[in-house]
Design a protein that fits this description.
Length: 736
């Protein structure tokens, strides 16, 4: 007879439980593991586990700045075998990044060999490269062998690894961090360490200092590749206050005169995390596609320093106008997103501002100071205890020698005769006789007094929080001297977008046809599409909208959730192939449907209507959105979006009743629900159209044939009336 299944039985191999609960519990465990052990840095040392393990393994291998470097393969093997049970390539990639001076503001690994470059080239294989720690890394590890931090068992339980590094400087903000976890991400820019330490000293002097006070010392990020930050001071302050925001970073450039009125632009610094080779390709594509109309040529003349040469098409254009166009069209200007999402001292993820991060670092430094002081005090106490026994032995040297020579158990006899402890007796017996003879009483007493004074100083320090903060301030001042370096990223006034040349001024005006499929794939082909039936789509897809436009136009897309989305036509993918999904360009809701797509015409007006039978007239300028998320204009489930080309509006409901009334009865609004178009007992609005009273309306029947409506005046009434049954065959006004 089979044994009945018991879920609590450890030998059970099958667990009967709902799938949703099993998935939820396991996915939660995976999410927590990703957040706490992979993606988010610790606010105290700014490290993720893999970086911390790399540095600790190199410390254990004694790869100090003053020693010879070792093969990176050796380091990666040690990390993988002892601390980090993941792929060797992931470990090597982390090690390489720590050595790249264009990725780290303060590199923590001194790499020898090919460790990649700013062009985006990969590092050489780990068997060819060598590495050792940098002085900055030693500052992060300072005190790790003095019980400064907690240790935990490694993955196999055979060794121990530090939970956090002692971190003598605020590495989280100094080198920055980035990562994507499950449901959260982090993006922290690098800063100047000397400025951060100045801000820490201000916090020690005035714990109530505000973010604005700290920004006197830390005006903004300091990227390793330099560049010019053009974000406003107010925006940076908000990012530092809330922990979320961003900073716009531009390439540094200068005009190089060539004589006879000729000039060219030389770029000496590019934005952080922009690959130079890819940037050059991007600029070349702009020239080829005639989007950068003022740029004639781009050349890379870089050696050890960045030097990109931009040749203008004409010397008559101003350099500022050329650069402004390139800033808006290429990665010569980027936006670094700030999301200071970190793990606190308890391992809890959360967003911190500038003050919170510095405060957490200072609290960590105090814990490290207290632990190192206690560790040192224990060593001093042990040494003092041994010196006291040694002094007794020196004063009674002849008797000690006699006991050692003649007694069968000299250790026990020494303890009994001189009232020594077991440690003191062992120390005396382990001391060579000739060394003991050379000892002098003054030397023993001198060392004893020196250590006793140091112990008393430590006791005073441990009893006084004020002295501890003073000591931390002195230590930070010394670290500041070691890390002092000039700021690389400068600041400039944020450009006034209103005064900047419009983007359309830099785009060649050409006719195009925008093609949007039913499944949301969009592209733009040059010229006019004569035969739509020849257009090709993915299997199962077909034409949804065909819109004539120009490259300088803005494409307006109206969705059933009442939002307008805006995409510049020149940024649409070319007509070759099937294009790209619209959802990659705008944040389009999964359940929403596209109701209308057209090129924006300034000054035009639109009539919007909802399923519930409400509507209003919208100036088209109010439909232009500046964000990916679109612009909410109509409240409710949208149904129609019609250009206002006439003076009458006809509506028909689900109940089959139609109503015609003057368009002037609809209010003009920027957004909202609107007013009632037609009164329904049940159902709602089915369709609407706008026409001129002079020409009369035209509508389409179910077979797609255009028909006139000469007797439309019989349905003329006031807005919000019920209307009367529509003519035979009229279900909708527009072709399906």
């Amino acid at each position: 007879m089979n044994k009945p299944f018991n879920p609590d039985d450890e030998n059970g191999r099958i667990v009967d439980e709902p799938l949703a609960e099993a998935l939820s519990r396991r996915y939660l465990a995976y999410a927590l593991s990703t957040i706490t052990h992979r993606a988010l840095p610790d606010v105290r040392d700014g490290m993720k586990p893999v970086h911390r393990r790399v540095l600790y393994a190199m410390h254990a291998m004694r790869l100090n700045p003053d020693t010879a470097a070792r093969k990176c393969a050796k380091v990666v093997g040690e990390v993988m075998g002892s601390y980090h049970p993941h792929g060797d390539q992931a470990i090597y990639d982390a090690l390489v990044r720590l050595a790249q001076d264009f990725a780290q503001r303060y590199p923590l690994v001194d790499g020898q060999g090919n460790f990649g470059n700013i062009d985006g080239d990969s590092a050489a294989a780990m068997r060819y490269t060598e590495c050792k720690l940098t002085p900055a890394a030693k500052l992060l590890l300072d005190g790790i062998d003095e019980d400064a931090v907690d240790f935990r068992p490694t993955y196999d339980g055979q060794d121990e690894e530090p939970v956090v590094l002692p971190a003598a400087f605020p590495n989280l903000l100094a080198n920055g961090s980035s990562g994507i976890a499950v449901g959260m991400a982090t993006s922290i820019p690098p800063h100047n360490a000397a400025e951060l330490i100045d801000a820490c000293l201000l916090l020690l002097e005035n714990p109530e200092a505000t973010t604005a006070d700290l920004m006197v010392h830390v005006p903004g990020p300091d990227f390793p590749t330099g560049g010019v930050a053009v974000e406003s001071k107010e925006s940076i302050h908000e990012a530092y206050e809330t922990g979320r925001g961003g900073v716009r970073l531009r390439a540094r450039w200068e005009v190089e005169e060539m004589g006879r009125g000729l000039w060219r632009i030389v770029i000496t610094e590019i934005p952080y995390q922009v690959q130079k080779a890819r940037l050059i390709e991007q600029l070349a594509d702009l020239i080829e596609n005639k989007k950068a109309v003022f740029l004639g040529d781009v050349r890379d003349e870089s050696a050890e320093e960045v030097r990109l040469v931009l040749e203008p098409k004409s010397r008559n254009i101003e350099p500022e106008v050329l650069m402004e166009s390139l800033f808006r069209l290429s990665d010569l200007e980027t936006r670094f997103s700030i999301n200071m999402n970190v793990l606190d001292g308890r391992g809890t993820p959360g967003v911190m501002g500038l003050k919170g991060c510095l405060r957490a670092f200072l609290d960590h430094r105090r814990d490290v100071l207290v632990r190192r002081s206690n560790w040192r005090r224990e060593r001093i106490e042990k040494r003092l205890h041994l010196l006291e026994g040694l002094l007794i032995a020196f004063l009674n040297l002849d008797e000690v020698i006699r006991i050692v020579r003649e007694e069968e158990q000299p250790k026990a006899q020494l303890i009994t005769t001189f009232a020594l402890s077991e440690l003191q007796a062992d120390f005396i017996l382990d001391t060579r006789l000739r060394n003991l003879a050379k000892l002098e009483e003054m030397e023993i007493k001198g060392e004893h007094e020196k250590l006793a004074a140091e112990r008393d100083g430590i006791d005073t320090l441990l009893k006084s929080p004020a002295r501890q903060w003073t000591r931390i301030g002195k230590d930070l001042t010394e670290v500041r001297k070691a890390l002092l370096s000039a700021r690389r990223t400068s600041f400039a006034a944020a450009p006034d977008i209103a005064e900047a040349p419009p983007l359309e001024a830099f785009v060649v005006r050409e006719p195009v046809t925008v093609i949007l499929s039913e499944r949301g794939w969009i592209r733009a082909t040059k010229g006019k599409v004569e035969d739509p039936s020849e257009l090709k789509f993915k299997e199962g897809d077909q034409l949804g909208f065909l819109i004539p436009a120009e490259t300088t136009d803005k494409l307006l897309i109206f969705a059933s959730d009442g939002r307008f989305f805006t995409i510049p036509v020149d940024r649409l993918p070319p007509g070759r192939g099937h294009g790209e999904p619209l959802r990659l360009m705008v944040d389009f809701e999964e359940k929403s449907k596209i109701l209308a797509v057209f090129a924006h015409k300034p000054g035009r007006k639109l009539m919007l209507g909802s399923n519930a039978g409400y509507g209003f007239v919208l100036p088209e300028e109010e439909a232009v959105a500046s964000k990916r998320g679109g612009k909410q204009v109509l409240n409710g489930d949208a149904l129609v979006c019609l250009p206002v080309e006439g003076d009458q509006i006809a509506v028909i409901g689900d109940n089959g009743k139609a109503l015609v009334f003057p368009l002037a009865e609809l209010p003009e609004m920027a957004r909202g629900k609107g007013v009632k178009l037609q009164n329904y007992r049940e159902g709602g609005l089915k369709d609407a159209m706008i026409f001129s009273a002079e020409t009369g309306p035209e509508w389409f029947d179910n077979s797609g044939r255009k028909r006139t409506w000469p007797e439309w005046r019989e349905w003329l009434g006031k807005r919000a009336q019920a209307g009367k049954l529509a003519p035979k065959g009229m279900k909708k006004f527009r072709a399906s």
